[in-house]
Design brief:
Elements: E1 2-6, H1 13-29, E2 36-41, E3 47-48, E4 54-55, E5 59-60, E6 69-72, H2 77-81, H3 85-97, E7 100-104, H4 107-113, E8 121-122, H5 129-133, E9 140-141, E10 147-149, E11 153-156, H6 160-174, H7 176-186
Parallel strand pairs: 1-2, 1-6, 2-5, 6-7, 7-11, 8-9
Antiparallel strand pairs: 3-4, 10-11
Helix pairs in contact: 1-6, 1-7, 6-7
Length: about 190
């Protein structure tokens, strides 16, 4: 099972690195499960993330292996993608070929703009919930949920919810025990001080 994490200029670092850490640890420490993770960017140029990190993707949006699960992160770069017909078309085609399409944070806005959240329950970053409600057709915005699994579409709220969603995917595809093992490997036990 190949997970493809989408990158673009302005992508929020932890929106993609959080799921990468979970899925990458799963692939590395439990190779018999057959999980793979890669990144996809619009071109082979350097991607500049929201806080300035610069990264190179494994593949371009046009030249990548088959993807089973899409992870579409958020960040300020998503705003520039709304209304872009090429991105809508590319994302719809990717969704047709994949088993599951997921989003972290405002990545849900791009999914909604492409029509992938029409008449579905979904969530996003708390500051973009109203924006999500205005995109697509009849999106059922879930304001209190960290992630929403609607079968072939899974959306999550901001940053740490993306990590939770990725662990949920491990559980969904490999069982709860494996998800607990991955959680232990990455030592993800949030205890916020506030």
């Amino acid at each position: 099972m190949r997970f493809g994490i989408v990158l673009f200029d302005g992508v929020e670092e932890l929106d993609w690195v959080g799921p990468w850490e979970v899925l990458g640890a799963w692939a590395r420490y439990f190779p018999d499960d057959g999980a793979e993770v890669c990144t996809l960017a619009p071109s082979d140029a350097v991607v500049t993330c929201a806080k300035g990190a610069r990264v190179l993707a494994d593949h371009t949006w046009e030249d990548h292996p088959p993807i089973d699960v899409v992870v579409y992160p958020g960040g300020e770069g998503t705003r520039r993608q709304l209304g872009d017909r090429d991105i809508r078309r590319w994302l719809r085609q990717l969704a047709e070929e994949a088993q599951v399409v997921t989003s972290v944070c405002t990545g849900a806005l791009v999914l909604a703009d492409a029509g992938l959240l029409d008449a579905r329950p979904a969530t996003t970053h708390w500051a973009s919930l109203d924006h999500l409600a205005g995109l697509g057709s009849d999106v059922d915005v879930r304001r209190e949920e960290r992630f929403v699994d609607d079968g072939d579409v899974v959306t999550s709220a901001g940053v740490s919810a993306g990590i939770d969603m990725a662990l949920h995917l491990v559980s969904r595809f490999a069982g709860e025990e494996r998800a607990r093992e991955v959680q232990k490997v990455i030592e993800y036990y949030p205890e916020p001080p506030l």
